Each structure stands twice: as structure tokens, then as C-alpha cells.
Input
Amino acid sequence: MVAGIENNNSSNTSTYAGLGSLLILPTWLVIGFFLVLPVLMMLVYSFLTKEFRGGVIWEFSLAAYDQFFFDRGLFGDEPPKIEWTYIIIFWRSIWLAAVATFLCLLVGFPTAWFIATRSGPNKSLWLFLITIPYWVNLLIRTISMKFLIRDTGPLNEWLLAAGVIPEPIHMINTNFAVQLGLFYSYLPFMVLPIYAAVERYNFAYSEAAADLYAGRWATLRKIILPIVKPGIIAGCILVFVPSLGAFLAPDLLGGAKNFMIGSLIEEQFKGNAGNWPFGAAAAMILLSMVLIVLTFYARQQMKQGKR
Amino acid sequence: MGNTRESMKEVAVDIVNLTKCYGDFTALSDVSLDIRDNEFFTLLGPSGCGKTTLLRTVAGFENVTEGAILLYGEDIANLPPNKRPVNTVFQQYALFPHMDVMQNVLFGLLRLGQDAASARARVGEVLEMVQLGGFAHRLPGQLSGGQQQRVALARALAPNPKVLLLDEPLSALDLKLRQAVRLELQQLQRDTGITFIFVTHDQEEALTMSDRIAVIAEGRVQQVGTARDIYEAPINKFVADFIGETNLIMVQVLGLADGNATCLLPGGGKCTCPAAQGAIAGEGHISVRPERVGFAEPDAGVMSGQVARLVYLGTDMHVDVTLVDGETITVRTQNSTGSYIPPVGENVGLTFEQGAARLLVD
Output
């Protein structure tokens, strides 16, 4: 690892002559030490043997990955079958994250549009208002949400009192609650990049489209969306990726039945399961999936840039 | 030329008592204009005069506060822009950055519901018309300013609009290119037979290209006429001063008869000159173009003064003459061997050519 850092530096010395290489050094150190090193540690751990009650034995093993994908029975002596438990958790996580992303987009785009089309000072005010809740810790906000939507919580009581519903809606510990939690946690990550893109959008394009006989819908579809697409994609990535690995919302709002990858991984390190290599393996599988999606997107972008 | 073109006229765009207010600010005040079929009509005025607002109300980007806009007899004032059979060339072109030239020009045709094959053929045709045949698959970002301007023109012409609106389309080009494009635009208007409404603050552009010009200031139409009308027979001080250079001389109007005025000039000289319609007796201003003032012996002309400054302009010489009362009259003389150019300090008399002076509406 240390060798890797030095390599990076020496290759940079030729590009950034003299002082430049010194200036970039802290960045490389931070990235190397806090980003690359932990990921590599997880990679290594995922191939080690587990020790009971946490920790690892320094002995190479594929057991973690084996456990993830294959079911060999209670004593490990039956012929391997595909283990669906974790794949289903993954699949559910992807599904929940995708729906959360879609909901954020549905609400975030009009919000971003609204903010970006306000006049100067109002714009700053709205942006400020959007970010205010994020000054409070996510854990606190998620617990508040739990309090709000539980069967005897204020939301249900208001609805009951108003006569809208005959009995409390059961929301807590459902997929809906997890969905709501994810949506609420990551909405600003959708709003801000789209806001930035819409702010740069030149409204003369909309006028030109209208001049060329396009109605509102055609203008949105053919002109506005394609032009602000980079902002939308950035927003989707910023919501989808953390949603996929989220564990607070599923833990607190989803209960035991609505496990997501994040909770699964968390449990391997902190919870009773105490299986570090398995947690590391699950994390690596998650990471590779995210990387595949991002690489695909980056290649797409590069292709478009070349045009 | 002008007369034959004018005689066959039907009104293309009839703007009737149009007023446009933004809150307390009145951008256009009771504007009425007849723009004729197959005419190159220019809205000329300084920035902020309302000319672009007027164009945008015709395009449909601004609603009108009061008044009507008739397009070949049909009131379009309340139609959205996509329902108006007019197209616009925008000042910064507003080419769709994610579409290539072909897609940009195709856009309007497809929105109108043309089938793809005939629309493509039409795009080829208009791209040839603006000499961009080989550029169909470039993105706007890969084109020069002049080429982008042509794409914008092609895109607006492709749907064959009843009226083409041009919002200072040449202002983003450099001088050389601008001069070349002027002639091409004019030719294009003749070839297509489409009515052009062209907005500019550049008087030279207006004078060289237009069949008729409307001079606009402070939200009002000051004067409508051919380039020659506007230059040679300005109606008021604003028009006289805005179009070309002129000397505005304060005079006492002694008498008005048959459209002619007898004026008392500063220094005691008298002149009789045509009066603009609406000019009144009393104190007023006459306008005399610098190139139509000549030199004479001191006290032989209608006015006299002393040469204060000479400015060499290449083909012309610019002579500032200070009158007795301190006012300055500018004389413009050709720099040819035959012409007399008095040295600085010389006392000279000034003469006006026949019909050069004109009494204005104040």
C-alpha cells in the first residue's frame, strides 16, 4: 500500500514539476490513508477466516463468499445449493434504493426547478431552508420519523381525530416506512445537483422550442430534460448509492423483516452475528456492484463527450 | 425599386394601439404599426427603447397589456408562441446544444407534424440556402459564431413562417462578417418572400437592409419610413440625432406656410426650409446634416463662425466651426483636391444646400 502511494507520487512529479507535487501530497495521503487503505483492508478481510465474537484469523479462506452464495446445509456437508437469503436481501435493497431514487427524482426535480427559477435572494433562502433539517444528525431525524409514523404517533392520531381514517394505519416496520426514511434522508442530494443544472439552463432554449411549435410537454421532454440530464444523473447516483448501503432507515423504521444490505453488513461487525469476513465480503460485493454501474455511466458519458 | 415593392402590399402584421406594462413601467406605449407583406421591416432604437419587447410580443413571449396584433387579419395577441406561425432568430441564437445542426433545423418541422422524409428534404434545402450543406452533423458547440448564426436562420426559416422575427441577430458577429451577412440576409428575404421584422440598435444595419424602418424611443414609435425618409426628412429631434450625424440648431420660427418654415437663425441670418409635419411656430430646432453645410466668405452665408478643429476621417474631413454664440456646427467635406478646407482659426461663413435644413417637431 505504501509503495502504491510512492508510485503515485513519482508519476505525478513528472507532471506537476517542483512545488506542485508537494502541494498534491496531502490529498494523496488523505485519499490513500482514509479511503484506499480501509477498502483494501476489507478486501483482505473478506478472504480471511472468521473468529467467533468478531475479529479474524489470518488464514486464507473463501468461506465468506461461499456462505453468501451457497447453502451447504446446517453442518456444511450437503451438496451446495444456491443460498437465496442474501441475494434476496441484496435484491430488495436494490429495489428499495431504486424506488427511493425515483421518488426523490419525482419530488426533487420540481423542487429544484422551483428554487432555480426564483429571483436571486429568494433562491438562497429556499436553498437554506432545504438544508436546515440536515443540521440535525440523521439518527435523530430517523428516530423522530419513527415516532411520527408509529401506530399511536401524531400522524395517525391527527388522521383519526380528523376522521380521515377509522383506525390507525400500520406504517412502522413496513417497506413503506423504509422507503419514506430513505426518501427523506437523501432528498437534498437529488435537489442540489438538479438545482445546479437548472440554474445554468438558458431559458432562451425553452423560448426557441416554443417558437418552433413545441408545447410545454414536448419542451420538457425534448429540450429541458436532455440539457439538465447530467444534474439528474448526478442526483440519482448521489441518492441511489447511499440508499443502497443505508442501515439507519431499515434498522429503525423497517424492523427485522425489512433487512437491507447496510443492516446485514452492520450486523456482521457490531451485532450478534460477529462474522467479520462475511461482512467484508458482503461489502465487497456491494462495492463491485456500485462500481459496475458507475463505470458503465462514466463510459457512456465519455462516448457522448467524444461526439 | 422601393416603389415597385411597396405598391403590391397587403398588411402582414398589423399592430394596433399596443401597450405593454411591467408593473409601473411602461415598456411600450400605444404602438401602432403596419408591416407589409414581403417587406424587410426594421425596428430601430437605442437599447431599452422597447424594440425587443415589441418583437417578443409578436413572437408571443410577452403578453400584451392592451391592444391587438393582427397577423394577416387574425388576432394572435392571445395565442401562445407555439401556436403562432412566426419564427424567431434569437440574439444569442439559442441553438439546442444537445442536438446537431440537422436535429436543430428538423425540430420545428417535426413539431408541426411533417413526416420525417419530407422534413429532412426541407432541412437539406434550407441548409443549402444558408450555405451550410456539409455541416448537418456538427453540434452547435463545434461551429463558429457566423455558422451558428446561419443555423439559427435555417432553423427559423425551415417551417416557412409567415413572418420571420430577427432579434439583433448580427450583434454577436465581428464587423467584417456582419457586413457580409447583411447583404446575404437582404438577399434571403428577397428570395424567400417572407416578411422579415428585424430588430437592431445599429443604424447602419437598418439603413442598408430595410425596406422601411420604425424608429422607436422610450416605448413609442417616433417615425416610420424608408431609409431615405428617415435620414433626409426626420420628424423630430430624436430621430434626426439618432440616425446619422446632424447639427441641431435652435431657431425662432417666424412663419409657417405650405409645409415650409421661415426661421431666424442664431446670429441674425434667415432661412426658409421644409417643416416636419406637426412643427409649430415659436422656438424650435432645425436639423442640418454636416455633409450638406458648405463654406462661404465670412458674412456671406446664413451663419458665420471660426474654425475650431479639424478631424481627419480618411475620405472626409470633419470641420468644427464655433459660432458667435458659442454653439458648434459640424461640417463634413470630402477630402478631394477640389474641395476647400479652411485652416483652424479662419473666420468662415456657412451655407446650407437647398432643402438641407429642416424644421423639426421638438
